[in-house]
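Sequence only, no structure available. Ideas?
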Amino acid sequence: MIKMKRFILLSSVFCLLSSVLSGTAFSAPPERIISLAPSVTEILYALGLEDKITAVTNFCDYPPQAKKKPKIGGMSNPSLEAVLSMKPDIVVMTTDGNPKEIEERLKGLGIKTYVFKARQLFELPQGIRDMGEVLGVKEEAHKLAREIETKLKKSEVRSQKSEVKRKALFIVWTEPLLVAGPGTAIDDALQLLGWKNIASDTKTKYPKYSIEEVINRSPDVILIGKSMGADMKESSKGLLKKLKHLEAVKNGRVYYTGDALYRLGPRIVEGIEEMAGYLNRSQKSEARSQK
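Reply:
I predicted one. Tokens follow.
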């Protein structure tokens, strides 16, 4: 009996030490947070943690208030000196943009890190819940996750009414031609809306694509995403000239979207709704042209 009590006691102590050392339990919510990704920054703001955000990357530009936060450099090359000077309680990173090496170097400096692991659309709600647990905003995180799940479900239900699966291409950059491939929120969104991404069978997330391949696969609609600091309507003129014989181009089924779908965060639903609007417009345009 004494041995059993001693075993239970030691086990309890071990669990307590493990929790403390891992920094994931029995600790006060962090008061000074650094975000190393735009998507993470958007989630932090959506969870009401804006006053606890100590610094962000140079690319964190939404919501607009994030632009006023101190900057610590890029996603792949943040200034570790700047991070240290901010004395953060935790640095929040993402597997989709922050190198593993940065996480290891931060840990080596004694800085606590949290890695947001969601990469695809269906992983987002649980990713938000997990982050909320660590940052001490469990209720807010669960509420936000439920809202996103509800809106995604509505988009999926609406898409099931379409019997014919149309083809789409989402262009990220025009020269060289880069498109959204498998494993991206954009590809997930097209599938959710009942469309086929013609680049879904490529081997990388954002592959280079050839003009010949676009022509051969002949998408019913072409979507061109917003790019920071670039006029995509202007920069796409040369590309669209080369694709002028495609039905999508001839019939004006080329649409320019915002950047919400580039970031796996709360605005992803807005991006899907925007995309759905363009795709529905495309189908109506196609139906008129066939009369």
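Residues 29-148 form a domain with the Rossmann fold fold (CATH 3.40.50.1980).
Hope that gets you unstuck.
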